[in-house]
Amino acid sequence: MKKLYYLFALIAVTFASCDPLSQTYKALDATPKTTAAATYTTTLGTYKSATDANTSIPASLLSKYPSASDGSSALVTFSLAPSSSNVAVPDSTLSRVSVTLATADYSFPASTLPNGTAVPGNSTAYLTSDGVINYLNYKYPTPAANQLVVLTYTYYEAGNTPSSGSTVTDSFLYFASGWIKAYTITPAQYTAAGRGANGYFSATDYAALSGFFNAFLRGDAAVMGPAKTGDVKYVSYKFTATYQKIMTLTYDGSNWVLKQTLQFLKIAGVWAPDPTVYITFPVVKNVTYAYLNNPANANIGTADARANVISFGDFSISGSGTTVWNDTDLTAALAAGLVEKIAKPVVGVPYTVTYYVYVSPSVVPRTKTFVYDGTNFVYQGH
């Protein structure tokens, strides 16, 4: 019996020592487990500037999410120091960026931008919301990035102004997607902030500015009516008697705050700022999609569909008929727009476009992402 016991023991040892997978099992047990690519959302502290945030946040993410695998992304919301929240405009000197229209300025001919976009002319003694964008495109055919114009002019809006219009002062910023109207602080608002005597803010007001502007925006029904979490407002204000500055505020669902959200990607074990370029094609009649009149784009959609989106500034996608866009043609129209609007695209960089569609009875935003392959903007998805 003892001999049988030794025989069984010898067989067991032999099988254990000869198992070719035993070391593999041990190696697998010793290998740290990795997780699938994931999306993280977090809030960090206050940074001196967006550049400072881009430099500092990757180390914080590596510490906060040590097991995140390559391909993961992180949406990071952070606060900006009040003095660094201004948009960097090429010229903020009030005497140079302020323009007051004379009677003769309201009449200007139709023109064409360097990229081929047609700009309608104007013959009235006032400008509408579309007309003022047309004027800016006519007056500044090759604006600088973030260019600021503070414009005093006669504005007309049916049902909201006298038939002859009203004199207003508005601020406009030029971004890659075109001219946008900023929120300009009024004389009454300077007075409400205790700065009515001078009509401007100074360096000693920096800490209080975001609070003032939040109160003004929250008290403005035209702003709060359509406001959604994540919306951004560019607030234009006088800084001393010499400058006009722009502060960026983001709506958090309750207040307009000094916050920004940036996306980071983990690549080769390192977190880095997401290189995606975000562009908005605004709803501006006869301007945003005027490039679809170019002969090179004649095969995109139907003639009626192109005319419709040019006229209204949004794509009709509901119902039926010759003005309705299918998704393939709509994607091609946006890609053609990127060719017109991005002078020097970067190979491999994603370009995410926010555009607007008409889904009866509402106009709503949608997004599509493209990557430039060196020749074309290739659609990647929503």
From TrEMBL:
Keyword Signal on entry: yes
UniProt keyword annotations, A-Z: Signal
Highest taxon in the source lineage: Bacteria
Keyword Signal: yes
Organism: Mucilaginibacter paludis DSM 18603
Signal peptide: 1-18
Name of this protein: Lipoprotein
Lineage, uppermost ranks: Bacteria, Pseudomonadati, Bacteroidota, Sphingobacteriia, Sphingobacteriales
